[in-house]
Amino acid sequence: MPNFISEDQIEKAIIQIFENNLGYRHSNCIDKDITGRFTENEVVIKPLLKQQLIKLNPTLPATAIEDAFQQICQTRLDKSDLMANKEIYGLIKNGVQVIINNKANRKEPATVKVIDFDDETKNDYLVVSQLWVKGQVIRRRPDLIVFVNGLPLVFIELKNSNIALRNAYDDNLTNYRKDIPLLFHYNTVCILSNGLETICCCLATKAKPFPSSIKNCCRLFIRDVSNSFSVMSVFAGKPRNSKM
Asked: Structure pTM?
């Protein structure tokens, strides 16, 4: 078929962009989960998140780190997906509010930083391919998940170029949100592409068509929808000084 682009070709090209252009690490989990998760039910890479919380908050006591860690990782199945996503977004953007004992042994509020928005090189960036995630009943395997400090912020689903992109939204993404909802509680952007067309969406917006370039797609999405979440500029093509 002329101009046919396979899903595998698209995935490899995207991974190369993350690794070579943006300095991300890559883990291929098609045969074995090498992310550090303890179970398939977990959507956060907890050891990596804990490590980064300690790194980004060197002056805070271990109790503050643990409190923030628990707040970030707690399940929110009693809330709607949109409310859970909004709550976690607030923790990521504004930091986690905790109470600590100061030098005078008095309680005072403190903020635990989750992502460093001022110095992006201090964060950990990981793109994971073919990672199994298990919901209450069904297992699903997204094509690519982008983790920042162990949090699954970006979901990428791919199709062969001869498959209508709308199928990825109507079928795959819809089923994934139903079967593995915890993954999308942390999500900031979903990217769907068949190599010829690309759309972006999130829990609060409908699918939105963009040019085929994934990096341009993300840049437009961030500018129009989520420009306050500045750490995503690295995903939009801003080079970083060092690999993590």
From this structure: 0.83
